[in-house]
Structures are given as C-alpha cells and as structure tokens.
Known about the structure:
- By secondary structure, the protein is an alpha+beta fold.
- It has one domain.
- It has three helices and four strands; from the N terminus they run E-H-E-H-E-H-E.
- Strands 2-1-4-3 form a four-stranded antiparallel β-sheet.
Amino acid sequence: MPWKLYRFRFEDYPEYSARITGHFAGDMLIIEEEGELSEEAVRLLKESLGIDENARKFDIEPQNIMKLPLEELPREDRKTLLAAMEKLDSESKLHIEYRYQPSFD
C-alpha cells in the first residue's frame, strides 16, 4: 500500500531554544507517520472531501472529520484512521500522500 498517513502538528519553538540551536523562533512542524491506507480507502476519502481523484497528496483538517465515510472504509484502514484522529488537536492535521516504493527483485 503506497499511501502513507501522517499527522502534522505544530509546536512552539521558543526564542531561547532558537538562540541555543541557531534556528529561528516560531512554530516547528513535526511529522509523525501513522500508518498506511489502501487505494480503496483513499478513493473514498477523496470522494467525501471533494478532492480530485488524481491528487497525489491531500490534508484532512479537524473540521472535516465529520465528512468522512468511516463505516464504508475497509476495517484496517478505519482502525488506522481512527487511531490517528484520536491524536488530533486544533494545532494538527492529517496528511495523506502517495509514496511509490519501487521493487528491485
């Protein structure tokens, strides 16, 4: 399954830490991989959110959760998505992206 589910969350990166590490202060994006989704699940999610079927990546914002057809998703995909949704807050979102993995057999 080449579709990856990530959770993007933003953390405050305070000025004093920024000075120590030599980076800019502000929000820092943390990307956490939550699992994989099947083609069927991604198709259903795109349809429910009105996303072009050829899109290779898209986001699910917390306010769009109610639009998702969870009961229609395959069992494993539903389980993965629900586990990721439990971790969402106002400073995070889900990101689904096609990640091609070539086989060199």
